[in-house]
Amino acid sequence: MDVRPETLSAVRSRIEALGMDFRFKGTIRTGINGIERETWLLDYQGDPFVYVAGQRDVVLGWDVGACPLGEGVLEGLRAEFAEGHADCEGEMGYRNWEDFMDRWEDKLRRTLSPLRTADIGDMIVEVDSRYFREDAPSLEQAVRSLKGGPFGLATEDEWEYLCNGGARTLFWWGDVLDSDILAEIYRKGRLKSSNMLGLRIAYNSYKNEIIDDACYTKGGDGGGALCGGDGAIHVLPCYSAFYRYPWRGSVRKEDFCYRRILRLT
For 2-35, what is each residue's pLDDT tens digit? Predict the structure, then answer.
């Protein structure tokens, strides 16, 4: 999926051939955990976009039995268990570490998308999501209203790829769940860094991001778990690329957002 320096000029030609109002701001290097890539930073009517190269046979979704947690994530969960165990042995709490992990795995089974593979094409993607323009009676109607014109919405496959960049980690920032990350989530409600593709995505669990799906949103739960003071079992999965939040009600513009994409053929 890397855009090698020698291919950047060819990518530019493809984008210019669209005849749209994209301005080239320059090339940028994006990456996480020592893996870097170079791509185009674009401007479209004042809003930043990046070029994202696709990939074939990308593994997406999660299966508790087939996808082991990284040791850094396990260490973070152990720390969360140790800190909260004394106060969580009541009706809604857990009895011991094994019970904690049973509940964690049950949460993942119920809220993460299934393990699968997909082919992802090249895209131009808005760097951050924007809030929905107006209220809608249903998620289906909201999705329909956002699909006109040159831009579209990411499918769930595309969104998960945009979030994790094809990496096989539960969280887009890697197999790490240290005190700095937990502090950003619990104290500030959001993560400050961009992901490996240079996108601001799944960084704020208060954001329900609309995708091309009438049943689920991605990127958070509207802040329900975090605002409600729920523990790691309910809060942390919201920050996974594979988390899906079912929605059956109306869509209020202040609670939902969307991200424009343009598929390149």
Answer: 445 448 999 999 999 999 999 999 999 987 766 7
Task: Report the C-alpha gap between 182 and 178 in whole angstroms.
Answer: 6
* pTM for the whole structure: 0.93
Q: Report the C-alpha gap between 135 and 4 in whole angstroms.
A: 42
Q: Which residues lie closer than 8 Å to 204 by C-beta, 6 or more apart? A: 189, 190, 191, 219, 220
Residue 87: predicted pLDDT: 47
Pair type for strands 208-210 and 22-32: unpaired
Contact status, residue 240 vs residue 107, Cβ threshold 8 Å: no
pLDDT digits (tens, 9 = 90+) for 103-114: 999 999 999 999
Helices (H), the chain: 8-16, 71-84, 97-111, 139-145, 156-164, 179-183, 224-227, 232-235
Can you list the alpha helix ranges (DSSP code H) found in 85-135?
97-111
Q: In 115-126, which positions are buried (b, 16+ CB within 10 angstroms) versus exposed (e)?
A: eeebebebbbbb
CB-based burial of residue 38 (10 Å sphere; 0-12 exposed, 13-18 middle, 19+ buried)? middle
Higher-scoring residue by pLDDT: 93, 174: 174
